[in-house]
Amino acid sequence: SEALEGSNAKRGLWSSRLAFVLAATGSAVGLGNIWKFPYITGENGGGAFVLVYLLCIAAVGLPIMMAEVLIGRRGGHSPVNSLRLIAERDRLKPAWRMVGAVGVLAGFLILSFYSVIGGWAVSYVGTAASGQLVGQSAEAIGAIFSGLLSDPLTLLMWHTVFMALVMVVVAKGVRSGLERAVSILMPGLFILLLIVVGYAMTTGEFGRAASFLFQPDFSKLTTSGILVALGHAFFTLSLGMAVMMAYGSYLPKNISIAKTSIVVSVIDTGVALLAGLAIFPIVFANGLEPGAGPGLIFQTLPLAFGQMPMGSLFGTLFFILLIFAAWTSGISLLEPIVEWLEEQKGMNRTVSTLGAGLVCWALGIASILSLNLWSDFTPLGSIAMFEGKTVFDLLDFFTANILLPLGGLMVAVFAGWVMSRQAVEKELALSAPMFKLWYTTVRYFTPVAVAAVFIYNLL
Ligand code: PFF
Ligand code: NA
After folding, report:
1. Distance 408 CA to ligand 1 centre (A)
2. pTM: predicted TM-score of the whole model, two decimal places
3. If I label 140, which of 9, 36, 224, 432 is the partner at 20 to 30 A Cα–Cα?
4. 2-458 maps to which CATH number?
5. 0.95 surpassed by complex ipTM
6. Which ligand is nearest to the CA of 332?
7. For the CA of 333, the nearest ligand
8. Separation of alpha carbons 161 and 239, rounded Å
9. Domain definitions of the chain by residue range
């Protein structure tokens, strides 16, 4: 491990706090915010779920993001090596390789279906640009979406395009262009969301949507809803698979981990809430079902683009920006796998990108078939909690609600119990009361909360 010492400098640091924030935001903001948050909010009854989700972000997600970034910066290497290095005097050292393994497995599984949904966005660029959406009824818009889902070969084509986009960037190992892209495209996405929110205000159902999102009705909150909210906090902030740990290893020492983590979490949460405010007025104004599931944004936003002035232009731009947001997240899902293959298996970058990318691509076919030919195939359907879940639903459930929280739990235990308190304190450089709050959270609150939600749901 001596050879590894001081390689922080060799690997080069982010040029500034902004560069780190851009990269981390690029990973965090994606389909999780615009596709997943609205539909799980709709499925879980709105306000109470949103409140639990916000609590999970603040009390579990943010502290774990800080833990990941600090482990990464302290170790100064790839996640597996950082953990090994910091845990040097720990007899359980090999156990921490598990964090890397969980991350690699989660990356494979998530990217496989993430790319299929990214493919939907690719397909909708053409749908919006061709003017097909103009003046369409909710039924016609729904039919366009069902038509896409029922066609495995078209889905495969767009999934292939999305996967190829991700693989090209990861194979080249580019990072600099990506940051610039994020700094232009993220604000663009934000502005387009604001435009749709503006349109949503004219539908007459904005107030109803706002109370749906922000007025908690606890009778609608279920234990499985709490598990989904917790899992989504990990998914949306890209936690539990060591992505933020990898990025943290490039963060200069003089930059506040707490402040940067707060910035990333606030941007991510802001985009999700804005997406909710854009979509639910359209849902209510057109008599659609809030619990419509994974197709929700593709059944609502096209309606808005079909009705607003210059809708075809805004719709085209919106789906292009959504692809970019999903692309930067997809890259951050594949990158750790490729780095792991390079480092642990000694493969070169091109070969590992091709290999890992092809495995994800092939796995994605299972998700594609779940939408049509296998739509009645529910492999674990005999277990109550998996009733009615297709392969695609199971992949989504298992990664977001089990694997990522498990990875996050290990990170919390590592930062809270394995690292020396001194090292952690120095790295965070917080005021005494703030440090105490964070330390208590990762040592006790986070592990207990994650374990409790797990156990409660399994029983
Ligand atoms: N955070 C991304 C999103 O919200 O779309 C998804 C994601 C990216 C999850 C990277 C996990 C990850 F490591
Ligand atoms: Na996100």
Report:
1. 14
2. 0.95
3. 36
4. 1.20.1740
5. yes
6. 1
7. 1
8. 26
9. 2-458
